[in-house]
Amino acid sequence: MTQELERPLDFHSQQFRLFTLSPSDDIDSPIEGSIQRTDFNDATPFEVLSYVRESSKLMNLIYIDQEAVLVPANVGAALRRLRYHNEPRHLWVDFICVDQRSLSERSFYIRFMKTILRKCVRVLVWLGPNLTPPGEPSTASEEDVGKGLQLMERICNKDPSLLQDLELYGLELYRPYRAAGGITDPELEAKVDLHVTRLVTMEQQQDLENALQTPPAWKDLWTIRDICLAPQVHLFAGSHVVDWAKIEDFLGDVSYAKTIYGQDYIWGKVWILSLMMKMVAKIYHQRQTMRNVLAGSVVQSEQSLLAVMEQFRFVETADSRDLIHSMINLATDMDDFKIDYGDSPGRLFSNLTELLINRDENLYVISQGPWRSFSAPTLHYGYGYSISSPTGEKPSWVANFQKNSIEYGRLFPDNCPYKSGRPSCEVPIRVIDGKVLVAKGVKLGRVGKIKQSDYDYQKGMEWINPEGGPRAMRKDSLPMEYLDLYLDRAVLTESDATAQEYVTGESCIRAFWRTLVMDCNSHPTIRLSAQQIESEDAIVRAEWSRRILDMETHGSGSVKEPCFSDRKINELWDDVYFNWTFSMTENGLYVMLAPPAREGDIIACLDGCQMPLVLRPTEGVKEHLEIVTYAYVHGFMDGEATNSLVLQEKLRLQEQEIWFIAESDLIWDYEFGGG
């Protein structure tokens, strides 16, 4: 620790420190430099070093103001390459310029980094080599990364000799396929003239991957932030340097970029951006957005913290708080959010969740968005799991903002077609003792007995009904199974005059099949029209009755025929049948739900929540609930729980406070997900 770092900064005057790197023409000489404090009124033009913050197992010795200081090995390696021969170089390096022992200073710099990055001359991104401790996987060498950077620079510069080589390689590689496809040599050569077969060799592809895909910098949130905010960016590995502006020009020239291809063992010829430059392209687009923000051409909501975090939520982090801490400088809607490095992940997530609820006046962030804390199926294939279960790790109402694996994060890929609760909730939301969130809503009823034998089995082809086989092979017979389990086949043939009525007043069979498809079309997901309902209802009654007769007469049904005649309705059923299942509440409501919902759980419509939520009493106090998942409840997806006096009287529904609570008293100390 140098004497300069021991003196606190004056945050109000935006003081900061700069590191002056002493020159040397000997690559092996000791790294030396000095620290000075300054402000933007008289600061020397400076650059920012961006590097991956690796573990503290490997450290290098440098000399600052003639004092020996240990710095991370990546910092030492980068500084050694950054030294000028004859003049000093002015740098901002977080490990050197920030007192790492001071939580207040580190907290200040989370916000202040936006200013630092915008005021610097450029950001220098260290791609490697990244030094790793013995026993850990090594990264690409300086030479390997450098070869990739040089090749990318030649591609960006449209090097004529390189492009000709790529075209000839593409021609030769695909020449053997001409006979099978009836393609003549002149036709192949014409394709070369059109620049559609510029194909990198496997060796070149590996070089590009070494530079643009595998370096840890492309998986580091802090580096991503630095690139997005900097006026200029240089990528360097050892002595090899490429100006990011060249890559921007390449990505911006779409017609040219689309002529460069790589190879994939499964898919064959693949566009280079899809193959090895996905993260580079994503950063490029985010950087363009930040420029538009500065120019005032982006609507504020389009650059929300949640939107930015969702873009980069799969990036690896060492600390579960990093996603918020790094991305907050790319957002335009978080100026009022206080950052404190002393807060645990639980406290940070809780504070942000509370702020978002109060600002948006709804419960979207905890009930339906990709950051929800509970496991739940999405509408379109796949099962969207949250990393943390809602039991014991954190309050079920706190959004899970750590790097997560929700591949299909949203229930709907487009706008939610439901409005089960009031569109907004009362704010400020009540939070008691930092743990209990008090919402308002209507409890519709408890989940009754779930009768399917395959309900609680594992997903995938192992989700087996011992009698009927895999659910994936029973898609078209499932409605008949559910009908037998919960209702009666007689409801299909009842006349309108004698038909049993669902609680909404419609026939049971109509309510039943509408529940199976959640009352929606697919692609895009929109509600069924009155005309669709009338038309499909008549067909369902006739067609399903025929199938039942076939089963009774011949012992088998036409299970390979679509369940619904309307293509878009049937596509919706294709989407939901595998993960969702039909059931009923104890008071007779038709629902579609999925594990981990179980018998006895409470289903409620909450103010500010578009979907009904499945809730479960905690073991300690039965009035305290945790969020389990969401559900579809037929007849209550358009605000009927609070707006329909008829349904309220029939089911004796009433609005009430609903309390969500943490199960663990150690919530604020528990470092879930790392950190």
TrEMBL record:
- Heterokaryon incompatibility domain location is 46-133
One matching Pfam family is HET
Return the protein name. Heterokaryon incompatibility domain-containing protein
Name the source organism. Clonostachys rhizophaga
Tell me the classification of the organism that encodes this protein: Eukaryota, Fungi, Dikarya, Ascomycota, Pezizomycotina
